[in-house]
Design brief:
259 residues; single chain; 6-stranded mixed sheet; alpha/beta
Length: 259
């Protein structure tokens, strides 16, 4: 697929996905969602990609869904768009590579939901977050009512959703919505640094840790630790586990091969 609304490149093992509609503040319309779906399916199967950084062009990460498009939809069409967006966020959350959101500016509505679907969120000190959907007579529809309380707690999530409040990066960090706040001119360098740190670890272990965490969050503790045992076993029978433990005993850096 040729992309009109996103940029994608792979450099030194990092896949860079940039939403590129700066005149529309990178708003998510059905075409952008289709392209994001396609690129993350490619990433899932691309052995060159070891980690992913998601960001936006210009002064926004993603400033929300495309309200101009949404205003023309009937109820069935609106539901279809919501389901499309949910499926894209689920794909990003489940892709078998670590995904870092480099939130460079406005992350509102669907943009906040996109950031929450990523594994780790790094925010520019100029970033703004919010779920303003109730201002439009709707609610978050791309997973926001589900992922936000899992990150910041039920009460805080309800407060943000009910009030449509926009918060800055420091408040997002305080409540646990983001893991880092970085000066704007250092954001991409810090995201790349983190990606390279993760890439230096055993790829199978990273993949299975992601599976265990994601699956465990969707069930009770007893079932979650059963998921963990299965994921642990997958890593224990890998060549990387043999190499990692051998390197530790021999006091040398491990040379992981993802096998």
């Amino acid at each position: 697929m040729d992309y009109r609304n996103i940029l994608f490149e792979v450099k030194e093992g990092i896949g860079y996905v940039t939403v590129n509609r700066p005149k529309a503040l990178n708003a998510l319309n059905t075409e952008v969602l289709t392209e994001l779906d396609d690129v993350f399916r490619r990433i899932d199967d691309d052995d060159r990609v070891k980690a992913v950084i998601v960001t936006g062009s210009g002064r926004a990460f993603v400033a929300g869904a495309d309200i101009a498009q949404m205003s023309e939809l009937n109820g069935i069409e609106g539901r279809d768009m919501t389901i499309q967006g949910q499926k894209v966020m689920e794909l990003i959350e489940a892709v078998n590579k670590p995904v870092i959101a480099a939130v460079n500016g406005f992350a509102l509505g669907g943009g906040c939901e996109l950031a929450m679907a990523c594994d780790i969120r790094m925010a520019s000190d100029k970033a703004k977050f919010g779920q303003p959907e109730v201002n439009l007579g709707i609610i978050p529809g791309y997973g926001g009512t589900q992922r936000l309380p899992r990150l910041v707690g039920k009460g805080m999530a309800k407060k943000l959703i009910y009030s449509a409040e926009m918060i800055d990066a420091q408040e997002a960090y305080r409540i646990g919505l983001v893991e880092y706040v970085i000066p704007a001119d250092e954001l991409m360098a810090e995201a790349e640094k983190l990606a390279k740190t993760i890439m230096s670890k055993a790829p199978i272990a990273i993949k299975m840790a992601k599976v265990a965490v994601n699956n465990g969050l969707n069930t009770d503790l007893k079932t979650g630790v059963q998921f963990e045992a299965e994921a642990y076993t997958s890593t224990f029978v890998s060549e990387d586990r043999v190499e990692g433990m051998k390197a530790f005993v021999e006091k040398r850096p491990a040379e992981f091969k993802g096998k």
